[in-house]
């Protein structure tokens, strides 16, 4: 039996409510001393590589993974995410 709250049609008023998605490309764990010595040209290494998947979150809930790419037809250099894995909301990713 379908869940009536999961409708994707326009009769559901929640379909037009915007939601903010945070894209996480990685984490850094510098020492506080290193952080205090950072300046405008400092480099902060992350725990991910350029080709690693990014993670998409709504609040603290992981909802998908994807790959960064440049948006075609958009403003030059504008980033986008191509989804490669989407969470099943019953059990997570």
UniProtKB/TrEMBL annotation:
One GO cellular component term noted in the UniProt record for this chain: plasma membrane
Coiled-coil segments: none
Keywords attached to this entry: Cell membrane, Cell projection, Chemotaxis, Cilium, Flagellar rotation, Flagellum, Membrane
Keyword GTP-binding listed: no
Residue intervals of the Flagellar motor switch protein FliN-like C-terminal domain: 16-87
Membrane topology annotation: Peripheral membrane protein
GO molecular function ontology, one term from the record: cytoskeletal motor activity
Subcellular location: Cell membrane
Pfam families: FliMN_C
Annotated GO biological process: bacterial-type flagellum-dependent cell motility; chemotaxis
UniProt family annotation: Belongs to the FliN/MopA/SpaO family.
Protein name as catalogued: Flagellar motor switch protein FliN
